[in-house]
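ingest -> fold -> write
write: protein_1
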Amino acid sequence: MLPATGRLVIPRGTREHFVPDGVPIDMRNLDAAKIAAARNALRCAEIAELRRATREPMSWSRFWKNLTGAFPRTSLRIPTNPIEAEKKFCP
């Protein structure tokens, strides 16, 4: 939901673990270290493969990779803190 202020507001009852209820997400106040860590984590092996699995065009090769990699990707847990995600997935 985007109110007249142009800020994204998380509705009550959703994502309590991520952002407290009713707190707007202000994109101007993001931490540069967290942004860099998130960008780096997206390029690390397991997260990069998850992104390829959902973004590449479907082919027989991609189908087979998705089929054989479904279980490991289903159990993949990415921390909400980008610095922790980078530490976990990037050697």
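write: protein_2
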Amino acid sequence: MPRRVDAARRIWSAATERADYPRRAMRGAGSQAMAAGATLAATLAAVAGRHGWTFALLTLIALCIGRIRRFGRQGTQVAIVGFFAFFSGQGQIDCRLSQRG
């Protein structure tokens, strides 16, 4: 009888640990890394425009920021999200709501 209880506890522990992982991942460094990458890309695009050297600068800064311990294993997302944000936004911030005419 104790073996069944022990096996049931191990199964329950494994199931709850796996169910808890997405919640921990969502509140963890992954979302912060994505926000950092998008913010970096938007800032560089607004300040310097969309050029080859701006993309090189974005790459360098994003890879350096991604090394911060707080981001942990999600640090590479800073650069990846920055790349997508930089090219999908075409280096421009949409300000149509503030422009009247």
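write: annotation protein_2
The chain has a mean pLDDT of 76.
The chain has four helices and no strands.
pipeline exit 0
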